[in-house]
Amino acid sequence: MPTYHHGNLRSTLLAAAERSLRQHGAGQLSLRELAREAGVSHAAPRRHFADRQALLDALAEAGFARLHTELRAALTDAGTDFGARLHAVAAAYLRFATEDAALLELMFTGKHREGAEHLVAAAAGPFGLLHDLIIEGQAQGMLEPGPPDRAGTVLFATLQGIATLVNGNLVAAELLDGITRTAVDQFLRGARPR
């Protein structure tokens, strides 16, 4: 295969890696195969990714950035009503978690690895939005006062549980919107100040 200069090789490799991740999972990702798909020499990807783990980390980092962008857009579009904002963020998170399940798994497992501080920093964006949303609900009297991490963990566990059920084919994907609405409504009722 002829070797040639590729103008945006890093982006091309990341896009191909994300497609491969969706189809085959992280275990099948290969720098050599991605190079073949991009039409470059098998050594060319190493200019951008020192090894396979560096590629996986770059994918996870891009995933956190995209999740942050999608959650922020959902918040902006929802307006100022806290309930609407919470529903919008939950729906956006679950859309991401069910459409990109393999990427989400890579993002979460990657950030707990030793030496992955850059992934922890990347995760701070989207999870900071959720944290701030909980604080917003507390300030408006919509959520019980107290440590925001407590309510945030309950909300996140609920959303992650729903994603796991959908991704494991235990709940049909077409039921996701209704389940999300029900879960957020129940969260709001349960977390309301007494």
UniProtKB/TrEMBL annotation:
It comes from the Bacteria. Keywords: DNA-binding, Transcription, Transcription regulation. Residues 7-67 form the HTH tetR-type domain. Residues 30-49 bind DNA. Pfam families: TetR_C_33, TetR_N. InterPro entries: Homeodomain-like_sf, HTH-type_TetR-like_transc_reg, HTH_TetR, MT1864/Rv1816-like_C, Tet_transcr_reg_TetR-rel_C_sf. Gene3D superfamilies: Tetracycline Repressor, domain 2. PANTHER family: HTH-TYPE TRANSCRIPTIONAL REGULATOR RUTR, TETR-FAMILY REGULATORY PROTEIN. This is TetR/AcrR family transcriptional regulator.
